[in-house]
Structures are given as structure tokens and as C-alpha cells.
Amino acid sequence: MNIIRIETTNSTNTWVAEHEPSVSSPSLIYCISQTAGRGQRGNHWESEPGKNITASLVFHPENFPANEQFKISEAVAIALVEYLQEKGVEAKVKWPNDIYIGNKKICGILVEHMVMGKYITRSIAGFGLNLNQKEFLSDAPNPVSLTQLTGREYKLEEEIEEVANHLEKSITTLLHENLHGKFLRNLYRHDDSYHKFYDKVRNETLEAKIHTVTPAGILILQTETGETRDYAFKEVEFIINE
């Protein structure tokens, strides 16, 4: 995989989109200072310059159906989870594609696709992974970094290489193997226990357990009364207490 370092940009996803087609596939672009990192639902991603991994993976899948796009999110999330697990922390994927350690967020992912007809022609998976940051100044409720968890300091360039290797392996596997089972095994709160969620469609809080996530990325919850409810992105929120 080609690795490209840039010093400063507003968002690595935006940088990739602006510099195509000069960026080869696959490539991992990372920056030292990201000034306006974007997250899901338009959120801003806080990252102290030079302390964390702020990067975007870009690749051009061949003949990949657009209606199977959640598989790409799964592959990226699994790569990052396995990287963190190798560091000795119990990372899980919080649906749809944040990475959590316990009830704390260590990584956010934003995947964007270019589609022509029925196929995805380009995918950009941007992510911010908290590596060496020790203090968070934003009002984000539950951030954590790898150094806070392990007490170690990490060399950015070495960790970028490791992450790139995991991503390359995962997206290569994606083309000939179903990763959905692995995604479910590493799913946050998929523990047969009841947790609090906020149903944004019905405007209510409920106690439910995660029944499954479908291959298309639909979250299915089961309430205490046995009712099952299906949720697409942005239709439900996890209620997390420290």
C-alpha cells in the first residue's frame, strides 16, 4: 500500500477527493495536523497535532455492488479493531463504525463512496484514532487514547505502517471472504444484555439488547417484551453511562 504524509489539511477525506486521480489505489494518506476533521452526523473530530492518527484510506474496488457498501465499513472497522487488539486492548465496533474500548471512544470512522450505476468506483475511509493524546479539550463525552490505556508512547510513523498493513489485509480479504461474522463477534454491546437506547423515530428511551446487525448494516434491537425493532443509520442512539 502506498503511504502519503501531508503536514496540514482541513480533512484527509477532502484532500483525497481534491487530489484524485493522482492518488494511486490503494493508498493511505495521513496528516500531522488536521484542522477540520469530519465525523458522522457532521461532528468535528478533535485531534492534537502530531499526537494521533488522522488518515484516509482510498481504494477503487472492482465490480463492487453499491447495495453492499456496508461491507466496506465492516472491513475498515475490523482492521482497526484488530490493530488495537494487537496492542493489548479490548476494542469493539460500536455500530455503525466507531471503535470503543469499554464505554470510551478511541476511533471514529467516516466512509464515503463514489457510485456509478450499480457499482462503487471509489471508496474513501477516513478515520481518527487517538494514539498519544493525553488531554481532550472538546466537549466530546467519552474520548480515550491508546497511551492513556497502556501508559506507553507510540511512534506515529511506525503505527501508521502497522495500520496500513491491517487495512490492506482487510480490504483484500473483503473481495473474496465474508467478514460479517467477524464484525458481529467484535460488536460493542452484542452481549445478550439489555442496555439503554434512544429511539429517535419514536422519540423514546428503551431498554433493549442487540439481536444482530444485518449484512446491509441495519441494527436490530430486541426489547424486554420480545419486540424487535429495525434501525437504519441515525435512527437510534446508544445511551452510555461512564
Description:
- The protein is α+β, with helices and mostly antiparallel strands.
- Helices cover 23% and strands 35% of the residues.
- The chain contains five helices and 13 strands.
- It has helices spanning 12-19, 70-86, 146-150, 156-174, 180-185, and strands at 2-9, 27-34, 53-59, 64-65, 91-94, 98-101, 104-116, 119-129, 195-199, 204-213, 219-223, 228-231, 236-238.
- Strands 1, 2, 3, 4, 5, 6, 7 and 8 form an eight-stranded mixed beta sheet that branches. A five-stranded antiparallel beta sheet has the order 12-11-10-9-13, with no helix packed on it.
- Helix 1 (12-19) links the parallel strand 1 (2-9) and strand 2.
- Helix 2 (70-86) crosses helix 4 (156-174).
- The protein is globular and about 55 Å long.
- Residues 39-43 have low confidence and may be disordered.
Give the tags.
alpha+beta, globular, five-stranded antiparallel sheet, 5 helices, 242 residues
Give a brief outline of the structure.
This protein is α+β, with helices and mostly antiparallel strands.
Question: Helix segment count?
Answer: 5
Strand residue content: 25-35%
Number of strands: 13
Helical content, roughly? 10-25%
- Rounded average pLDDT: 92
Order of helices and strands: EHEEEHEEEEHHHEEEEE
**Largest sheet composition:** 8 strands, mixed
| Helix/sheet category | alpha+beta
User: Between the first and last Cα atoms, what is the distance in angstroms?
Assistant: 38 Å
Low-confidence stretches: 39-43
Please tell me how large the radius of gyration is: 18 Å
The gross shape turns out to be: globular
